[in-house]
Design brief:
The complex is a heterodimer of chains A (410) and B (555).
Chain A lengths: L2 H9 L4 E3 L6 E4 L4 H14 L2 E5 L12 E5 L6 E5 L4 E5 L4 H8 L4 E2 L5 H4 L3 H6 L6 E2 L3 E2 L4 E8 L4 E3 L13 H4 L7 E9 L1 E2 L3 E9 L2 H13 L4 E8 H7 L15 E9 L1 H17 L3 E3 L1 H12 L11 E5 L4 H11 L6 E9 L2 E8 L6 H10 L3 E2 L8 H11 L13
Helix pairs in contact in A: 1-2, 7-9, 11-12
Chain B lengths: L7 H12 L4 E2 L2 H6 L6 H8 L10 E3 L4 H14 L3 E4 L16 E4 L6 E5 L4 E5 L4 H10 L2 E2 L12 H7 L6 H4 L6 E8 L4 E3 L12 H5 L7 E9 L1 E2 L3 E9 L2 H13 L6 E5 L1 H8 L5 H7 L26 H11 L6 H4 L6 H15 L4 E9 L1 H17 L3 E2 L3 H9 L15 E11 H16 L3 E10 L2 E11 L3 H22 L17 H5 L3 H11 L22
Helix pairs in contact in B: 1-4, 9-15, 10-14, 11-16, 17-18
The chains are: A alpha+beta (410), B alpha+beta (555).
The complex binds flavin-adenine dinucleotide (2 copies).
One flavin-adenine dinucleotide (FAD) binds next to strand 3, helix 6 and strand 10 of chain B.
Chain lengths: 410, 555
């Protein structure tokens, strides 16, 4: 029997197709973990790679003999537990797909950037990148209460659902971020949220980026629970709010625009907004038209287009390093026209600085070096010091070395 | 070579080469001390003066991660187990050296390298005592927010190794929610750091893969922990609800509205009654009870350690024990019940409790934090509780709880006479399953012992239940049989309902046999971590239900 026939037997004729132009590559679209387990065992026998595929936004670089597991048919909500605000979903469902099911019930996956939610939930969890956090709910992984997966040895696992537990390490975390090297994530139990009772927005102008960063952290220290917050430097603000209604007030060089949003029970969300206002005042800021903040929120969460191309460089910095990273990149690129930036995705780990370099790609290397030297982490960075342990874990759970073999080896 | 053949002397010589002569011991008194932790089952034997079942070959007190790494390398060479030992306050036998080996006492690693104000992160050694840690932070205007009842006798490393929970976890989280990075000496004898903004770095989150490993993967020598500014105000209050179900529903509503009190506790009927027994007004309690550590202004959140320990028959635990024993401190009505038949007791007692505590179940709620926001949040919490049918009892019950919250006994063994024992079982589940969990576990334990429960550590998606039980056997052997049956049936019931067998005490030896039921096939992942971090199987053998120990076995 050929591999193609065996695959067809495992997932059904209609759900297997050879990948064009490659002699030994197939795509299968299984409908259940048991089918995936069958495919994995088959791949073991034939010594070909297993490569999970979500929406394919950033597919694995693995080439060569392989079977690609397209998750698209595993897109069901298995159990919506409105009592516990938990949802058990299959990994092939996209974040948006889930949101469509939740919203009519007054529920939501939460204030994550919709740009993240276009991916499959399996893909979102499989790859750890800085965009996937919300100042309100934390990193996307924090929403995970349990995962189901088929491991590289063909075993199907389900981690147990509990709000917290002390029964060893959090085993779901071995799969989250593992980029398909440990196993195929087939489902997850996620925390969800009720639609907030009220939302408020606030916009202000601060005398400097430093003051703006300080104001944000001051508000967070006063325990303001923000739904979102962003800092723009003057150049970035002028471009993002060119021709906006209302118009951006005149900002001098060095000033910064801070927009923030709060959500929750009305009194608390209003209190949180007021905490931002007093933090801004404490740092010498002045208030701007609230509608600027509302416009920013609509652009991110309500599909209103942003009239600007995406940033060219993303750098994560811990709270104490944000200012230094911003300064370092601006200084280093001064000779090539400089850089403008906004700072967003604040959480306990820090924030992300999104730079647009006037010098374009030519300025990138200089900017990256400056960012790293100032203590920042570039998008897609990896802590390679722990690789021997990752290799050990992979060897134990994927003894045949077939799961996304080239992933996480860069 | 089997470790049976390795003499303590050999081990001592090897260890002295690393730490010098003064920080190693093979003295009998030390080996006996490090033979156990606070697992109540061991206290039954200890109480009888039985010799320690499992002693280490040697105890060593390293002062740095480098020394720990050298010790682990020695152990690898000798194929001897390593058992990390913090405060020894664990209640599951996690620090018991079942195959002997080297016990590493971490308590000489106590540096606190300052708080980075920008990052709100503190870099602290694993051996630092919990009380000293919080006091040191309070002095600088911060709190880590982990206040386990054992804070006076446990270490930061022990907390991280067991994923401990403090009384204020509903606001501050369990310890695993507050960790930015760990320094760990793995079973390979290497020092690793798991730091870095976790969401920015690709690959699995190693911090979360080491937290809770109970010494089976490595020794946590230091950690970067998230701290909060010290609270500016505290608001505590008592409420009464009609019954457990109503109380659970009220707590769920508060949490799911997005409110985060520091603590919410709901006592079931029996627990409510045991708490209000003793016949005096809570106010009187405060003054009369010399053991109650009452915080005084300027001390931060922590009162001075209560001493001496409460006398055996005092306090809620004492009352529970007396009940199991058929003792004197209990109402006559209850004595009428067949006291050696716990299921009958629980039934009868349940009825009596309902009668006595006609007003229902007691609930304590507390908020703390920044001044402005805490007040707004408190108002919303009280409003939500009232809307759920809870009756405000004012500040008094809240204050009484704060005053007594560390009044736990550190001298349990005197209480364990006449074959009587007490212990606690802390399980958790989603809200959907919580009442099922409560009834199933209560019934399971109730077959064998007197049992009461409170609900604490609430989350938007679920809650933990803390069962306290007291039982007895006519002799030690019978007591141990009853004890084992309670745990077997209680944990089986938990797994059946779909809860977790431990919310915060950990697994140790006590729950090792239930790990398969808890994780099923996912145990493969734990085994994979073990294979990677501790390839020779030397780290804390027998715990967490993995790793039978190094090839050579001891005594
Ligand atoms: C350097 C870098 C930075 C990025 N930064 C961001 C960012 O800031 N914000 C953002 O939103 N996105 C970012 N992405 C894209 C990010 O990868 C996607 O958000 C998402 O992970 C892709 O989801 P997908 O469904 O399209 O998966 P795919 O693109 O199809 O797959 C992504 C990877 O995950 C594996 N995978 C997919 N599904 C599963 C599964 N069910 N089980 C196991 N493995 C699986 C694949 O094999 C592949 O290796 C970044 C990607 C890279 C490489
Ligand atoms: C009266 C009393 C009240 C308690 N109240 C609470 C409570 O409110 N909340 C709660 O969570 N727990 C509570 N406990 C349980 C216990 O205090 C906790 O489990 C605590 O975290 C243990 O810390 P320790 O330093 O005493 O650890 P130990 O008992 O010394 O060790 C516990 C486990 O962790 C391992 N270990 C210890 N240190 C390290 C390290 N540095 N690196 C790696 N592994 C290590 C040990 O090998 C062992 O397996 C209570 C116990 C008692 C006796």
């Amino acid at each position: 029997m050929t591999i193609g026939t065996e695959l067809a037997r495992a997932v059904g004729d209609a759900n297997v197709a050879p990948i064009a132009g490659e002699p030994a590559a197939w795509q299968v679209a299984p409908a259940a973990p048991a089918e995936i387990a069958e495919v994995v065992r088959l791949a073991q026998r034939h010594k070909i790679a297993v490569v999970p595929l979500g929406t394919g936004i950033r597919p694995s670089a693995d080439r060569g003999p392989r079977v690609q597991i397209a998750m698209r048919r595993m897109d069901h909500v298995i159990h919506l537990d409105e009592t516990s605000l938990l949802v058990h979903v299959q990994a092939g469902l996209t974040g948006m797909g889930l949101e469509k099911i939740l919203v009519p019930r007054g529920l939501s996956i939460g204030d994550y950037p919709p740009a993240v939610l276009v991916s499959t939930l399996g893909g979102i969890l499989a790859v750890r990148t800085p965009g996937k956090s919300s100042v309100r709910h934390g990193f996307f992984e924090d929403a995970v209460v349990g995962v189901s997966a088929v491991l590289g040895d063909g075993r199907t696992v389900h981690t147990r659902v509990a709000p917290r537990r002390s029964t060893g390490p959090d085993l779901a975390r071995a799969l989250c971020g593992s980029e398909g090297t440990i196993g195929v994530i087939t489902g997850a139990v996620l925390r969800i949220h009720r639609k907030p009772e009220a939302r408020f927005a606030i916009a202000s102008i601060l005398p400097s980026i430093d003051a703006a960063v300080s104001a944000v952290y001051l508000a967070l220290r006063e325990e303001a629970a923000l739904a979102g917050v962003r800092i723009y430097d003057a150049a970035e603000a002028r471009i993002h709010f060119a021709n906006a209604t209302p118009p951006l007030p005149a900002m001098s060089e060095g000033e910064a625009l801070v927009v923030a949003s709060t959500a929750g029970p009305t009194d608390l969300a209003a209190c949180d907004r007021d905490l931002v206002a007093s933090a801004v005042a404490a740092e010498g800021g002045r208030t701007a038209d609230t509608r600027l903040a509302e416009l920013w929120w609509r652009r991110i969460h309500a599909g209103e287009p942003t009239p600007v191309a995406g940033p060219t460089l993303q750098v994560t910095a811990t709270p104490g390093k944000v200012r230094a990273v911003y300064r370092a990149v601006c200084t280093a690129t001064a000779g090539s026209g400089g850089a403008r930036a906004h700072v967003s995705r604040f959480d306990a780990d820090g924030a992300v600085v999104f730079f647009t370099l006037a010098g374009g790609e030519a300025a990138r290397a200089t900017a990256e070096t400056a960012a790293r030297e100032a203590g920042g982490y570039l998008l897609g960075a990896r802590a390679t010091a722990l690789d021997p342990y990752l290799i050990g874990l992979r060897a134990a759970l994927d003894p045949h070395g077939i799961m996304n073999p080239n992933a996480l080896r860069d | 070579m089997s470790s049976r053949e390795i003499s303590s002397e050999t081990v001592r010589r090897e260890l002295e080469a690393i730490v010098g002569p003064r920080r190693v011991s093979v003295r009998d008194a030390d080996l006996d001390t490090y033979a156990r932790d606070m697992w109540p089952r061991l206290l039954l034997a200890h109480r009888e003066g039985a010799p320690a079942g499992h002693r280490p070959h040697a105890v060593v007190w390293p002062e740095s991660a480098r020394e720990v790494a050298s010790i682990v390398k020695v152990a690898r060479g000798l194929r001897l187990p390593i058992v990390p030992y913090g405060g020894g306050s664990g209640v599951c036998g996690g620090a018991v050296p079942i195959l002997g080996g080297i016990t590493i006492d971490t308590k000489r690693m106590t540096a606190l390298r300052g708080v980075s104000a920008d990052e709100l992160i503190v870099d602290v050694d694993g051996g630092l005592n919990g009380e000293r840690f919080e006091r040191e932070l309070a002095r600088r205007g911060y709190t880590f927010g982990n206040f386990p009842s054992s804070i006076y006798c446990s270490t930061v490393g022990g907390w991280l190794a067991t994923r401990a929970a403090g009384q204020l976890s509903t606001k501050y989280g369990k310890v695993e929610d507050r960790v930015a990075g760990l320094t760990v000496v793995t079973g390979r004898g290497e020092v690793i750091e798991t730091d870095g903004p976790s969401r920015a770095l690709r690959g699995p989150n190693w911090t979360q893969l080491v937290l809770g490993s109970e010494g089976t993967l490595g020794v946590i020598t230091s950690a970067r922990l998230r701290v909060s500014p010290a609270p500016q105000m505290q608001i505590y209050r008592g409420f009464e609800v009609e019954n457990v179900a109503a109380g659970v529903e009220a707590i769920r509503r508060v949490l799911q509205r997005g409110l985060r009190p520091a603590v919410v506790r709901l006592y079931d009927e029996l627990d409510t009654m045991m708490n209000s027994m003793g016949g005096h007004h809570p106010d009187h309690d405060l003054q009369a009870d010399a053991h109650a550590p009452v915080p005084t202004p300027g001390e931060g959140a922590l009162p001075i350690l209560p001493h001496p320990a409460p006398p055996p028959e005092d306090g809620v635990v004492g009352r529970l024990l007396a009940l199991a024993r058929g003792g004197r401190a209990i109402h006559r009505e209850l004595l009428g019940a067949a006291l050696d038949r716990a299921n009958v007791v629980n039934r009868v007692f349940g009825a009596v409790a309902e009668k006595v505590a006609r007003r229902g179940c007691r609930m304590i709620i507390g908020l703390e934090g920044a001044r402005l926001r805490t007040e707004v949040e408190a108002a919303l919490c009280f409003q939500e509780l009232a809307a759920a049918g809870a009756h405000d009892q004012g500040e008094e019950p809240g204050r009484a709880w704060i005053a007594h919250r560390y009044a736990v006994s550190y001298r349990m063994s005197p209480m364990f006479r006449d074959g009587a024992f007490v212990d606690t079982m802390e399980v958790a589940s989603s809200w959907e399953r919580l009442m099922d969990l409560y009834h199933s576990v209560r019934t399971a334990i109730g077959q064998h012992a007197v049992v009461m429960a409170h609900f604490s550590h609430a989350y938007p998606d679920g809650c933990s239940i803390y069962f306290s039980f007291a039982g007895r056997g006519k002799d030690r052997a019978e007591a141990e049989r009853v004890y084992d049956a309670i745990w077997r049936d209680g944990l089986d019931a938990t797994t059946r309902v779909g809860g977790t067998i431990s919310h915060h005490h950990g697994v140790g030896l006590l729950k090792a046999g239930h790990m398969e039921g808890e994780h099923r096939e996912a145990m493969a992942i734990l085994a994979g971590l073990k294979a990677s971090l501790d390839p020779d199987n030397i780290m804390n053998p027998g715990k967490l239900g993995i790793g039978g120990g190094p090839v050579g076995r001891a005594r």
